Known about the structure:
Strand order of the largest sheet: 3-2-1-4-5-6-7-8
Order of helices and strands: EHEHEHEHEHEHEHEHHHHHH
CATH topology of the largest domain: Rossmann fold
Largest sheet: 8 strands, mixed
Number of helices: 13
CATH superfamily of the largest domain: NAD(P)-binding Rossmann-like Domain
Helix content: 40-55%
Number of domains: 2
Low-confidence stretches: none
Number of strands: 8
Mean pLDDT: 94
CATH architecture of the largest domain: 3-Layer(aba) Sandwich
Amino acid sequence: MTAVPRRIALIGLGEVGRTLATDLHRTGGIELCAWDRLFPVAGSEPQRTARELTFLRAAHSMADAVLESSLVICAVTAGECHAAAAEAAPVLARGAFYVDLNSVSPRTRVQAAHTVEAAAGCYVEAAVMSPIAPKRIASPIWLGGPRAAAFLPVAHSLGFAGAAVYSAAIGGASAAKMCRSVLVKGMEALLAESLLTARRHGVEEAVLASLEDLLPGTQWRKLARYMISRSLQHGRRRAEEMREAALTVAEAGLEPWMSRGSVERQQWAAGHAEALSEQALTGMLDRILARTPAAAPGRTSVTAVVAEARR
């Protein structure tokens, strides 16, 4: 019978961290602690979350969280993946599992793995292959690396019902995740750009209706509202993820034109989070457009785009 870890450290207390903390607590008999670099920032979301989750001990530092934990689950933003591993590695208990849930390129994942393994930790690549909200801890998670098979029964005992070993090599699961992100996060960016433009030109209804032939049965209005809202809520995090997606594309020898564009659109969307208060798609689009002045005739950016198109 697989022993359930008694002390688990969560690094990062954002959407994923909060979900996992709540579900792991239900397992019972587990001491949970967490560290987030935003804990010291007054009024930050991770600080508020830590106060709300009374069953969770908020650590004073990375070392305070990781020391003596037999399992460390890292769910920070993509840009912090290697830095988090480097900070945690020196204080990892020998043989402790370090499960890296971050959405990063294969190369970034390999760097993090080397850092953890050099400190006698057991690195496990983990790629979450769906939004976390619907199935929560039971979401499909592909595990990778030489430690993945050993961790799998531990994962199942903790409630990670959707966990499966993808590969004994580091990087494959991450490559699959990043290629998925090129499409999913890119689609979010494309829907935002298309429908905001259509709304300003007064043709959004025609555009939505025309999409019915693309994927029959898809409720495009509902899908568009959901996908654009994800960018508004998590745009900064998604922009970091798409930078890693661009690296993944480049590592394959291709120019990441679409991924680089998605980085910019996702980052831009994060500045319009107030539009989340609008329940209707048109209201959300109008709220965003209210802060986005239409281009004046001869505006430099428009002139440049027209010139490029005529080449």
